[in-house]
Amino acid sequence: MNTKDLILEKTLKLILDKGTIDISISEIRNSTELTTGGIYYHFPDKSAIFEAILQKYIINYIKIDFDEINLEGPSRKKIHDTLLYILHHFINGVEIESINEKINYRSVIFLLTATGYAEDEVYSIIAQTGEDIRIFLTGLVEDGKKQNEIRKDFPTKNIVESLLTMYMGIQSFWLTFANDNTEAILEKNFDIAWQAIEYQ
C-alpha cells in the first residue's frame, strides 16, 4: 500500500474509533508511524486529508457498478437481485486494507457529512446514483412487461417509483436503526411489491 492510502485508511480508522473528525496530526502521525513532514508531503493540511477520505470512501463508494449485478432468470429474480445487490453494496461496507476489516458506510456518512465536508458533492452523487438506479430498474420492468411477467396496465414509471420507494424506505430504516434484519425486511417487502405488479 502506498503512503497516501495508508494515511487515509489510518485516519479513517481513528475517526471511526473516536466517533469524531476531531483528529490531530499527532494522532495521525502515531497511527501511521510517519513523521509530520511525511504526512504534509502528501497532504497540505487536515482538511485535505478529510476531503480525500470523503472522495475515496464516500463519493466513489456511493457509485454502483451495475455491470457487477448478476442478472439471470425471470424478471422477479432480476429485480429482486438488483435491489439486494444495491442493499449489500451499502450495508457490507468497504474493506480497509491496512487494518483488514470493513468499515460501515452508515458510520462514515454520518460522521463526514455531519462536518460539512463536500456535503453538496456527496448529495449530488447520491442523487445521481438514485437516478442511475431508476434508469436501471426501468429497463428491467420494461423487459418484464415484454416477457409478460409484469403487469402492463400499470405505467412503468409508477412501478419503478413504487420499487424505489420501497427500497429507499428499507435503506433509510437501516441508516436510522442499523437493524441486523434489513435483508429479511427487504425480502418481505419485495414479496408484497411483486404481488402487486406480477402479470395476472
Write the layout of secondary structure elements.
Blueprint: H1 3-18, H2 25-32, H3 36-42, H4 46-62, H5 75-91, E1 94-96, E2 101-103, H6 105-113, H7 119-146, H8 156-177, H9 182-197
Antiparallel strand pairs: 1-2
Helix pairs in contact: 1-2, 1-4, 4-6, 4-7, 5-7, 5-9, 7-8, 8-9
Number of helices: 9
Strand arrangement in the largest pleated sheet: 1-2
- Determine the N-to-C terminus distance: 55 Å
The largest sheet is: 2 strands, antiparallel
Listing every helix as H and every strand as E from the N terminus to the C terminus, the arrangement reads HHHHHEEHHHH
Roughly how many Å is the radius of gyration? 20 Å
Strand portion, in percent? under 5%
Which overall shape is indicated by the principal axes computed on the Cα atoms?
elongated
| Helical/strand content category | mainly alpha
**Rounded average pLDDT:** 86
Uncertain runs:
none
Number of strands: 2
Helix percentage range: over 70%
Structure description:
This protein is 70% helix and 3% strand. The protein contains nine helices and two strands. The longest helix has 28 residues. The N and C termini lie far apart (55 Å). Strand 1 and strand 2 form a beta hairpin. The protein is elongated and about 70 Å long. It has 200 residues and is mostly helical. The chain has a two-stranded antiparallel ribbon with strand order 1-2.
